Amino acid sequence: MNLQMAQVYLQHSDPSMSTRTWQAVMEHLKSGTTKERWEYAIQDKAFDFIRDKKLMKTTGEHFLNVLASRITVDFIQVEMCQ
User: Fold this and answer.
1) Of 5, 7, 32, 49, which residue is most buried, by most CB within 10 angstroms?
2) In contact, 28 and 44? CB cutoff 8 Å
3) For residue 62, which of 46, 74, 76, 45 has the smallest C-alpha distance?
4) CA atoms of 17 and 8, how far apart (whole Å)
5) Is 62 within 8 Å of 49 (Cβ atoms)?
6) DSSP character string of 4-64
């Protein structure tokens, strides 16, 4: 019930909140002095877990999947370089 109330409040304060995806957030963040870093980082396949997910439907488990995928990729890259 509390989650539903929070979603109604957020949708009222920002109508686009119910349709906004993480890809839109990533695009918005790539500006200023970190633009090049963001443009490179958001292409990472690890973000595919949340890229098209709506903000309102994202759970902690989704972020854990991103982190787990990234750690695996980093580990594989380190192993291949040795």
Assistant:
1) 49
2) no
3) 46
4) 10
5) yes
6) HHHHHHHHHH-GGGGT-BHHHHHHHH--GGGHHHHHHHTT-GGGGGTTTSBGGG--HHHHH
User: Where exactly are the structural domains of the chain?
Assistant: 21-81
Question: Whole-prediction pTM value?
Answer: 0.63
Cβ contact 33:64 at 8 Å: no
43 neighbors 63 (Cβ within 8 angstroms): no
Per-residue model confidence as pLDDT tens digits over 2-16? 877 877 777 778 778
φ and ψ of 24, to 5 deg: -65, -40
Q: What spatial distance separates the first Cα and last Cα of the chain, rounded to whole Å?
A: 52
Pair of tokens at residue 48: 């595919």
